[in-house]
Amino acid sequence: MHQLTLTQLQQGLANGDFTATDIAEHYLSRIEAHDPQLNSFITITADQALAQAKAADEARAKGEAGPLNGLPIAHKDMFCTQGVKTTSASRMLDNFVPPYSATAVERLQQAGMVMLGKTNMDEFAMGSSNTTSFYGAVKNPWQPDCVPGGSSGGSAAAVAARLTPAATGSDTGGSIRQPAALTGITGLKPTYGRISRWGMIALASSMDQAGPMATTAEDCALLLNALAGHDNKDSTSATQAAEDYTQGLQQPISGLRIGVPEEFFPETLSSGVANPVRAALSLLEEQGAVLVPISLPCLAWVVPTYTALVAAEACSNLSRFDGVRFGHQCDNPKDIEDLFTRSRSEGFGANVKERILLGNSMLSVENYQRYYVKAQQVRRLISQALTEALQEVDLIAGPTTPDVAFGFDDKQDPVSMNLSDTFTIGANLAGLPAISFPVGFEQGLPVGAQLIGGAFKEAQLLQVVHQYQQATQWHQETPKLGAAQ
């Protein structure tokens, strides 16, 4: 059953091949058997999942089933879930149980989905390796001595190992696409504002974007149908109407112009990544797409620009965690200053503290104009360059990451970590949609390709990847751990 896609499970439920309870029990047993080796979940909501599955079966029997009735989902642990601990993988929120659910969670629940649990992540979504979690590192199901990527590494690992058919993630600089690439699944970052941010624990509010993670583009389209749409509770929510993202998946891609920036294929890019990506582009060309060489010199600016802006926004967003109203509070504080100092020192991990210090420096009187304002100006230039390029071509293509999954002892310094997101950050700075999908393997580890589209062109991205996946089997490959019963 766990080898079935979300779409196939939906069809099986409609045919009466199995029940929502059967599915929930199957996945919960897989989580129990295999997750101790991966650490992809922080909280497993078995009782709630079985109750929701039972309710889904009853609704189907009455003819009242929602569009995603009875299908399992796991949520990254920075989406607030009413009555269920939500930690953002930090000691600071180890005791936090929200009295409300994020809009994304609510919409999937209203569509009938069954929550299996909350997935592990980098603390407060800061990282590209999923090694900074207070609850321990997540392991890549393809090679357990390698990272799954971050910050949505728990969601990616759980989907890749078939512990859940789908999961939610968040993407601020590549945190859906990078782990999707490193674990061999499909991950979509929609246009900024396409999915409500309300109820998501913020990292950088001007870039954070929720999105679906699954084995196929078709499954991501199915989830996006439920997730997309305006939300009055989120002032940054897009007012543009959502669409049926599954409707155009079968349309041919003949005549589609795909820009291939030379900057996405530098001399330093390993052949083990470059060759599978180029082969994928060649297949799209055989299917009728037109490959157009382009240049985007602005990509050289994305990492320093992102580093400055994310640190500034993160330190502002994290200032609310002070040990007073909720979250970790130190023992026996002497006074209010001691309460703030020790609660934050004990509650935050090293990586988060570094970002807070850097962010406060960026926003200081001495550096505000020199770094923060300058980074905003460069961000505008990057956004303008990408938008102009997408007026000449329909999509922009290249590798998702410069390398395949790396070992736990590699790239642990902040500079190397940020460089892991070199190819993904631009879409976040410009607020554009982008998708990662598997295109091959290098030394037993998945390789991902990325497509970037124009604003609100998610349907086109999903269509292209679906057509590619109809002609290939990379998305069907399963790690040995995940294939076991």
Describe the structure.
The chain is α/β, with parallel strands linked by helices. 39% of the residues lie in helices and 13% in strands. The protein is built from 16 helices and eleven strands. It has helices at residues 6-15, 20-38, 46-61, 103-110, 153-160, 177-183, 217-227, 271-286, 302-317, 336-347, 350-362, 368-392, 414-419, 425-430, 458-470, 480-483, and strands spanning 41-44, 72-76, 114-119, 166-170, 186-189, 210-214, 257-261, 290-294, 395-399, 434-442, 445-453. It has an eight-stranded mixed sheet with strand order 4-6-5-10-11-9-7-8, sandwiched between helices. Helix 8 links the parallel strand 7 and strand 8 (290-294). Helix 2 packs antiparallel against helix 3 and helix 7 (217-227) packs antiparallel against helix 15 (458-470). 56% of the residues are buried. The model has no long low-confidence stretch (mean pLDDT 96).
SSE layout:
Layout: H1 6-15, H2 20-38, E1 41-44, H3 46-61, E2 72-76, H4 103-110, E3 114-119, H5 153-160, E4 166-170, H6 177-183, E5 186-189, E6 210-214, H7 217-227, E7 257-261, H8 271-286, E8 290-294, H9 302-317, H10 336-347, H11 350-362, H12 368-392, E9 395-399, H13 414-419, H14 425-430, E10 434-442, E11 445-453, H15 458-470, H16 480-483
Parallel strand pairs: 2-3, 7-8, 7-9
Antiparallel strand pairs: 1-3, 4-6, 5-6, 5-10, 9-11, 10-11
